[in-house]
Amino acid sequence: MKPKMRNLTKAVTVISLCALLAACGNDKQARRGADTVKELALLAKSRLSGKKAEPTAQPDPVAMINAVLNEIPNAPLQFVLVEKTGGFAVTSIYGTNGNKVTWISPDRKSMTLESGVLTATRGFGGDLMSVEDGGAAALIASRSSGQAQKVYRFLNGEDETARFIVNCTIAQGERDVVTSGEITAATNVMTERCQSNEGFDFTNTYWIDDNRRMVQSVQWAGAGVGQLVFRRLRY
């Protein structure tokens, strides 16, 4: 295990900072936009309040973030939340390949982002194996509007890879100042609205700073996993 990963696991394990939480029954997908990500702590706590457990058993995501930032100085860190279940963790970088960065959680779930755009998951079940983005990531990073056809490849129940094709419209939205962990940044909000020929649709939302860095995002990871919320805590 890499030293930074070992430290992250230790930090999270000591104070029970990574929890798989029960869903409270409300689908957050319709609430795309700044409100979804600005108050990640409140979102996580609302999930927690839906779980039948004693208050003392409820981990505090704010305390989690602060503890890991203190425990692991200088390393890039990212908060990740699974909207459907309420599970959350602080992740660290496991590896890089060009613009692709793989982030890993203490329970060994991983997410690969290319310029901040999700391209793969591992360890979730029904994983996203790869994405052909049709130029979407470049449009998003440059904060440009446009069209792209994306091909998602998922692992199905028979361990076979299935293709899912969507047509996406990318548009630039409002300016928004984001404060997250040690980061404060002025950003443009980019929306990516995608629809398949069968009528299934989803929307991804990205906050891009003036250096083309993804500060936070809400991204679809598949029918099983649903939306993943990413929030950078430190570059």
Automatic annotation (TrEMBL):
<protein>
    <submittedName>
        <fullName>Group 4 capsule polysaccharide lipoprotein GfcB/YjbF</fullName>
    </submittedName>
</protein>
<dbReference type="InterPro" id="IPR021308">
    <property type="entry name" value="GfcB"/>
</dbReference>
<dbReference type="Pfam" id="PF11102">
    <property type="entry name" value="YjbF"/>
</dbReference>
<dbReference type="InterPro" id="IPR023373">
    <property type="entry name" value="YmcC_sf"/>
</dbReference>
<keyword id="KW-0449">Lipoprotein</keyword>
